[in-house]
From TrEMBL, chain A:
Protein name as annotated: Putative zinc-finger domain-containing protein
Residue stretches making up the Putative zinc-finger domain: 3-37
Organism of this sequence: Pseudohongiella nitratireducens
Entry-linked InterPro entries: Anti_sigma_zinc_sf, Znf_put
TrEMBL record, chain B:
PANTHER family according to UniProt: RNA POLYMERASE ECF-TYPE SIGMA FACTO, RNA POLYMERASE SIGMA FACTOR HI_1459-RELATED
UniProt-recorded name of the protein: RNA polymerase subunit sigma-24
Species for this entry: Pseudohongiella nitratireducens
Domain RNA polymerase sigma-70 region intervals: 23-89
Lineage: Bacteria, Pseudomonadati, Pseudomonadota, Gammaproteobacteria, Pseudomonadales
InterPro entries linked to this entry: RNA_pol_sigma-70-like, RNA_pol_sigma-70_dom, RNA_pol_sigma70_r2, RNA_pol_sigma70_r4_t2, RNA_pol_sigma_r2, RNA_pol_sigma_r3/r4-like, WH-like_DNA-bd_sf
Amino acid sequence: MACSETQKLVAEYLGGEMTVAQRTACEYHFSVCEDCRQAVDGLAGTAGRLLHWEQVTIPDWDRTASTAEEVSAQKTRPEVVPLNTRSRQIPGGWQSWLPLAATVALAVFLGWNQDSGLSEQELTAYLDAFEQRQQAQTQRIMETAMQEFGDSTSDSMAQLVEWIQAQRTADMQQLEASFQQMLNHDYQALSSMQQLASWVSTQEP
Amino acid sequence: MERTELALIQRAIQGQPDAWQALVRTHETRVYNFGLRMTGSVDDAQDLLQEVFFSAYQNLSGFRQDAQFSTWLMRIAYNRAVDQARRRKVRDADPLPTSTETVDDRPGPAAETQSQQRNQQLQSWLAALPLEQRMVIELKFFQEMTFDDIASLESISPNTAKTRFYAGLARLKTLMGDCDGLF
Ligand SMILES: [Zn+2]
């Protein structure tokens, strides 16, 4: 296109934001610029057709669903379920779920808000790697515990294992709830790692 | 913002279901029609509607009362629509439907009205646009936003918004071609 102003002028003209003086100036330019005249003539009809849209009334729907937390969360966001399933598989936690949650929040935030972002596969791979790290960590802690409690009875060992399991379950539930809340949250408003971390940490499961 | 709406929001935050439902009724048609044009599908538009109001309800206490509720809600609708499109992209690894068959899969009445046919035709044209162009066309023509507001909502420059708007219209013009007497 020879005229460098065509896109901008035609967009502004058809976008309907011009003052009368601006419109007049613009129309004068169109009268002397073949490129712009052709563009605006063609696209004005296109824009006009869009205005034939007729408002559709909604078929009956459940207006109360938006206030029912759990059901709605599952029903309206089916694609996040696999993510929660994954988080359920993350072993251990050991108070370290918070940085993880913030990191994943950031990953989701970046991935789902940028065209060239993180894919679901990459996110899954990330969570897999995390899972392996956690397993190794849990193993190390268990080994340390074995050494420390080596002389103890099998009863106290069983209690320790029970305690670890309880910790895991509690952390997992907290992590899951935070994920769900985070995904339901309008997370485009969260703009930094710090914000995400503090947001996740202040959410009550 | 109208005092009554502000009162409704305050009552909804306090957990009064009637107040929330009244708010939903006021804005649901706009959100639903936005969804129909953005997704090209009745099912997806209904999902989007649920998601938008779910998210709005969850975040209601964060609504700044000096802002317009409708603007705030459209921001959520925008985010949810982009999110839904991305999730669908991951799910289907396939662009939006471009054939009219997928646009409205409800068993319609025997004789569709001309306005229904026109809407379906428009939906299928819009569905053939890249999301970023469809969004700017939607926000400009149907939500009547300024380029500056669109730019701010989408975190792009006003010039990018104008370029997308122009490119979207040009693409639509090609798609429309010489269409029949519907319009
Ligand atoms: Zn020109």
